Amino acid sequence: MSTVVVIGAQWGDEGKGKVTDFLARGADIVVRYQGGNNAGHTVVADGQEYKLHLIPSGILHPEKLCLIGNGVVLDPEVFIGEVEGLSARGISTSNLKISPRAHVIMPYHLRIDACDEERRGANRIGTTGRGIGPAYADKAARAGIRVADLIDPESLAERLKIALEEKNAILTKLYGSQAFDFEAVYGTYKKYGERLAPFVSDVSILINEAIREGKNILFEGAQGTLLDIDHGTYPYVTSSHPVAGAACLGSGVGPTKIDKVIGVAKAYITRVGEGPFPTELKDETGERLRRRGHEFGTTTGRPRRCGWFDAVIARYAARINGLDYLAVTKLDVLTGLDRIKICTAYSYGGETVEEFPATLKVLSRCRPVYEEVPGWTEDISTVRKIEDLPVNAQNYLRRISQLSGVPLALAGVGPGRDQTLVIKELY
Ligand code: GDP
Ligand code: IMO
Ligand code: MG
User: Fold this and answer.
1) What's the pTM?
2) Could you please report the per-residue DSSP string of 361-425?
3) Looking at the CA of 43, which ligand is closest?
């Protein structure tokens, strides 16, 4: 039996979808435990590209059970669209279950997300506009609607009435926006509830039973460590916990049941949305990484900001998540660079900073301290064994693993399933 948590070790979009799909071969169950359809996980299987927002990246393996845990915020319209999109491409969702405890993203959450961003003006977070923050805010404020309510017309009516009283006041009085009509929302969401009902099952029971039976479970994180609401670059973060500890909370599994944690990191680094980014490249090299790496958001299509690999962030992610292994993706994107820089520490007011700072004030004044290593020019996209990589590429991987203090398990040389080098078998 093995339970493995896959998390993003940077600001999201590290390639968690690809790594999850790859590791899912050895798993019986794949679980999403936080976030919502702010996530965009791309999986390329047999030359076909799939963009998954809510459904676990194990779904392309028909025999695996895919679960959406209580820690996820679920937009029913998006969920239904994703199920239909997959079935139109011949992918079955008969093995997909949703926790009744997951919270529902309602239309007023989307509207409030947009109004909040507009109000913030220059201080906007650059959210994905999917209603994620307002849905988690309602959960914490005990004003949310859960999947269990959505599928029970009586509970839905009760919870929606309470919610709309507050939301309509906020929308009309604070934002000068339109109120939502109870009957219209109720009618639509009651129908969504009917569609969702067959998928609802107690995810915590399913996972714990499977663990007792010695099965292999894979937990798929969304977003990344630096977008964590506690451990990330607050307030430029998401409203959930993308870190490994949340796999337990977001699925109803005790911490004693987790065996391994894998951090996914790009061989460089990207960020979408606002907030400080010490190794950001605003020059030709950054543009090159964006072009070669196709660094445009899976969810919003926004260009991703690109920069050099940051070992301060990698060490921080190792500590916060208790990383056992690293999966380094997109090594192929660095091909053709004469020299590659790695940030080993920050310089702040003449001092060397080794640990990731807690405040944006300090972080925004940190300058990266770089070490330069030689690049390689050979095409590595067809390489399948680490020892067949050009020596400089091998050295680069070795160096980032050493600076991060985490051994390497996987390395990616392309988006395809087979473009993965296995350094350590995890199942
Ligand atoms: P996620 O949100 O962490 O799942 O990552 P995204 O799917 O948003 O972004 C990662 C992108 O990189 C996707 O388009 C993947 O297909 C692609 N990708 C993943 N691994 C590799 C790799 O090793 N090399 C290349 N060139 N692309 C990769
Ligand atoms: P995956 O799972 C990258 C970012 C947004 C914004 C901030 C808050 O694909 O790695 P939100 O809509 O969550 O309130 O936005 O978080 N963000 C992501 N960035 N990858 C993601 O998911 C992200 N999900 C949210 O760009 O800066
Ligand atoms: Mg993504």
Assistant:
1) 0.97
2) HHHTT-EEEEEEEE---S--TT--SGGGS-HHHHHHHHHHHHHHT--EEEEESSSBTT-EEESS-
3) 1
